[in-house]
Structure formats: structure tokens, C-alpha cells
Design goal:
Endonuclease III, domain 1, 2 domains, 55% helix, Endonuclease Iii, domain 2
Length: 216
């Protein structure tokens, strides 16, 4: 567990470096179910590639009813660039049908109901809760997993344990935007293969940084 002084300093630095709040890197047409579909597609795929696929997907299936009735082969052809396209197509069609049959075409708010949807795990559920419903949520993607370890906020590789470690330490009002801030940092300063440690303004908070840092 990091000290309150450390956490306060880290949150302030993240807000200074990446001040945009409420930013979601997955683009969608404004309908909540579209963000859910985009998030299902993002499993083992980059956001940028998903964003290349979704405009055509939403043009082909503008309503949830269209998606629920989709021909799986046609859907697979559209989403193929995102990888694992067969299982994703199955999950998307089944999820569309469940949303229509059980939730009146809307999205449920609770973690339990969201994770009951085909292809929806805690990461996807937390993203929906955070960005659609404004519920503070810890979203553990690959950037958050890797960089939270570097920052000494977790020693686990398990996404659920990482989520719990972060929830115990980060202020609740920072939970959702921590994800977008860490994604921005991971893409611009701390990519996995070539981190720019000498230029990193989070260096003093980083347990793996090769440069001297103050005790904390």
C-alpha cells in the first residue's frame, strides 16, 4: 500500500499531465449499446483498429434489433480485422438478443447484470459503468495492468486483484479517469517495448525507474 502523500502526488501529477476527463478512446455513435459492442471487439485488439471497424459495423446495423438479427457470416466479415472474430460475432449477436429480451434494449447498470452478458467481463462492465453511467470504476486494461505495477500500486498479474488493489488506494473520484490517463501515458511515454524513462514526469513515482527517486 502506498502512502496518502504518494497517492495525492501521483493523482495531482496525472491531472496535470492528462487533464481531459471523461475521454473514451473507443469511438461510438452515441448509443450506449454501441460502446458495449466496441468494447467486446477490443479484446486482444487495439482501440485504433476497433475504431476503423465500427463505423462500417454501425452503418450495417444501425439498431440493436438489426444486430440481434444479423447473419453471423456477414458480421464476421466486418469484424474480422479485430481478431477472434467468430467468438466475438457470437457474443455480439447473443448480447444484442439478451439486451432486447431482458433489458428492453437498454444496458443494465449493475456489475452482476453486465457480466452475465455474453463476452462481457469485469473490464468491459467497468468501462460501461464508468463512461455510460458515470459510476466510478476501475478499468484494468493492458496499460493499467503494466504501469500500475511499475508505480508499485499492485504486485499482482491478475486483473481482479489489480482492480481491488487500485480501488483500495486511489480516491474514488479518480477511478475512471485513471484508466484514460494511464492509457495516454502508456502510448506516449511508457510503451512496453521502449519506455522513455529519462523524459517521464512520473519517474519519481515509478518503482522500476532507473533514475534516482525520493523515498516514499
Amino acid at each position: 500500500m502506498k502512502s496518502k502523500e504518494y497517492i495525492d502526488g501521483l493523482m495531482a501529477r496525472l491531472d496535470e499531465l492528462y487533464p481531459v476527463d471523461g475521454l473514451c478512446y473507443l469511438e461510438y455513435g452515441g448509443k450506449p449499446w454501441q460502446l458495449l459492442v466496441a468494447t467486446i471487439l477490443s479484446a486482444q485488439c487495439t482501440d485504433s483498429r476497433v475504431n476503423m471497424v465500427t463505423p462500417g459495423l454501425y452503418a450495417k446495423y444501425p439498431a440493436l434489433e438489426d444486430l440481434a438479427a444479423a447473419d453471423i457470416t456477414e458480421l464476421e466479415d466486418i469484424i474480422k480485422p479485430t481478431g477472434f472474430y467468430h467468438s466475438k460475432a457470437v457474443h455480439i449477436i447473443e448480447t444484442a438478443r439478451v439486451l432486447l429480451d431482458k433489458h428492453g434494449g437498454g444496458l443494465p447498470r449493475s456489475m452482476e447484470s453486465l457480466t452475465e452478458l455474453p463476452g462481457v467481463g469485469r473490464k468491459t462492465a467497468n468501462l460501461i459503468r464508468g463512461f455510460i453511467f458515470g459510476i466510478p470504476s476501475i478499468i484494468v486494461d493492458t496499460h493499467v495492468k503494466r504501469i500500475s505495477g511499475k508505480l508499485g500500486l499492485t504486485r499482482s498479474d491478475d486483473p481482479y486483484r489489480i482492480e481491488m488493489d487500485l480501488a483500495r488506494q486511489l480516491p474514488e473520484e479518480h477511478w475512471t479517469r485513471y484508466n484514460t490517463q494511464i492509457i495516454a501515458h502508456g502510448r506516449t511515454v511508457c510503451p512496453a517495448r521502449s519506455p522513455k524513462c529519462g523524459a517521464c514526469r512520473l519517474a519519481e513515482f515509478c518503482d522500476s525507474n532507473i533514475f534516482p527517486s525520493p523515498s516514499r
